[in-house]
Amino acid sequence: MLSIIDVAKHFEGRTGPVIALDRVHLTVQKGEFVTVVGPSGCGKSTLLNLIAGLIEPSEGHMELDGERIRGIDRRIGYVTQSHNLFAWRTLRDNVCFPLELAGVPRAERYRRADRWLEIVGLQGFAPAYPHELSGGMRQRGNIVRTLIYEPQVILMDEPFGPLDAQTRITLQDLLLRIWQETGSTVIFITHDLAEAVALGDRVVLMGRRPGRVTHIEQVSVPRPRDIQHIHDDAEFRSIYDRIWHKLEKQTDD
Ligand SMILES: Nc1ncnc2c1ncn2[C@@H]1O[C@H](COP(=O)(O)OP(=O)(O)OP(=O)(O)O)[C@@H](O)[C@H]1O
Ligand SMILES: [Mg+2]
């Protein structure tokens, strides 16, 4: 179980102090898929940066299985909003990087990398460098680099943002299958409410600055879900409309 306990984050920005998160309290069950939506600048990436241990909270703390998270934790994988692939490494060596850190021998690293690259449709691009790939291809590499070492918790910050609709559906479907097979816990940020409802067990709504959780909606659509046709599902529609209404009200406030 992952607990975010009364966490606040203040930044001393160039334009003055910023309250990026204001006492966020959230408990995510082991194996749960939680999606987060909210307006730009409401603190979504900050929340993931905190859980990933890249930054320190100003108040409160986070726990994984009852143990305080301090700094970077190998049990937690992070697919960041921008790809961060190393320019001087090939795609294969980029996605292998976490395995290399873990001391996995090269042959085994490459075997796993090639299998993953094939799954996301990048077979044949293993020897290419990031600048030789399209934005969507780099993003797929970025996702594989985290999934390849099967972390217990997977943080994803708008991972499918730069992808075309077709690739997006394929990868959403793939992610759900991997999640169901591995039993990992996922926290997934998106701007796309339909994506949030289609993927999540719960949708967490965040409000404008200072960043707060304003609403949590349970998504009762049964699994396994048919991502391609879920938009026609009556239950999906009613949950989508209910959250949409909340978002509208939030913008008016
Ligand atoms: N390192 C930093 N220094 C100063 N201010 C920061 C820093 N990181 C984030 N902020 C501020 O914190 C607030 C929240 O930023 P954050 O990146 O978490 O938003 P977000 O919800 O992820 O937005 P988006 O949807 O556009 O990605 C913003 O006002 C931003 O300017
Ligand atoms: Mg962000």
Description of the structure:
There is one protein chain. The protein is of the alpha/beta class. It contains 7 helices and 10 strands. The strands form 2 sheets. A 6-stranded mixed β-sheet has the order 6-7-8-3-9-10, with helices on both faces. Strands 2-1-4-5 form a 4-stranded antiparallel β-sheet, covered by helices on one side. Helix 2 packs across helix 3, helix 2 (91-101) runs parallel beside helix 4 (135-147) and helix 6 (193-199) packs across helix 7. The chain is globular, with a radius of gyration of 18 Å. The relative contact order is 0.17. The mean pLDDT is 94. Residues 11, 13, 18, 20, 40-46, 81, 209 line the site of adenosine-5'-triphosphate. Adenosine-5'-triphosphate (ATP) binds next to strand 1, strand 2 and helix 1.
Q: What does the secondary structure layout of this molecule look like, with pairings?
A:
Elements: E1 2-13, E2 16-28, E3 33-37, H1 44-51, E4 59-64, E5 67-68, E6 76-79, H2 91-101, H3 106-119, H4 135-147, E7 153-157, H5 165-182, E8 185-189, H6 193-199, E9 202-206, E10 213-218, H7 234-252
Parallel strand pairs: 3-8, 3-9, 6-7, 7-8
Antiparallel strand pairs: 1-2, 1-4, 4-5, 9-10
This protein binds adenosine-5'-triphosphate and magnesium ion.
Features:
6-stranded mixed sheet, 4-stranded antiparallel sheet, alpha/beta, Rossmann fold, binds adenosine-5'-triphosphate, globular, binds magnesium ion, 253 residues
